[in-house]
Amino acid sequence: xxxxxxxxxxxxxxxxxxxxxxxxxxxxxxxxxxxxxxxxxxxxxxxxxxxxxxxxxxxxxxxxxxxxxxxxxxxxxxxxxxxxxxxxxxxxxxxxxxxxxxxxxxxxxxxxxxxxxxxxxxxxxxxxxxxxxxxxxxxxxxxxxxxxxxxxxxxxxxxxxxxxxxxxxxxxxxxxxxxxxxxxxxxxxxxxxxxxxxxxxxxxxxxxxxxxxxxxxxxxxxxxxxxxxxxxxxxxxxxxxxxxxxxxxxxxxxxxxxxxxxxxxxxxxxxxxxxxxxxxxxxxxxxxxxxxxxxxxxxxxxxxxxxxxxxxxxxxxxxxxxxxxxx
Length: 327
Hints:
Blueprint: H1 2-37, H2 53-63, H3 74-90, E1 101-103, E2 106-108, H4 118-139, H5 143-174, H6 179-184, H7 193-196, H8 198-211, H9 223-226, H10 236-261, H11 272-293, H12 299-326
Antiparallel strand pairs: 1-2
């Protein structure tokens, strides 16, 4: 029992370290790639190729003065970044990132925990993050923050339904909510669910961009309209927690897309963990590419697209998949 507890603690520590490191270097990669796409150099000053820029940014943010807006609701203002930060990390508890490995004579599964409602757990926990955004906007006592929070709440409600519908096709094909079972059901490249659920995959991808408030759905932040939206009044550590949560959510969404539609850690020749990381990096690159190339939607366009296009398409996809499984 003690041995299992120690192994679980080590797994949690390794996964946390990996996600935090990934978040730091996704920021660096985004700045580099966007700069190249706009014919600029990006970070070059701190370390070779600017590789130590994330460390410099972290030191700057953690040593800045903590400022709390005078008329803010103090406790909610402080708690909001934590409410956004914690769910972004605990979702990784059920995502398998590799096959079983043997270390010191023991078989170790490369995931923290496998339970039979893993997908339901992720959908539930990721929904909690919006409470942090709404509370940040309301407690800041700023019109820009409040408008960003209202936009985020409306966006989450609109696109959460499409996100849920997009994965139901995969559940109908596998008959399980366990992410391990879903990966095992995609034993070869031809069995990947992206081929059997192309509409579900597209719906998931679009809804995931909206859920993570990324371009072209970044209306809750919208620098040109709302300064920085819901975290306009935040600085220092609290600002860093919102930023890290945003990038951790990108990693979670990419890992879930890999698990549900691209066979998870499975692939020929390379080690399973390497396949998993390559697939996740593909989605991260897609996030950055879209940010550099697409303009932001208008708010009415965002709402219309969610309710009049994605929702009907999701319902039709579920109906067709259910009929195909039944027949």
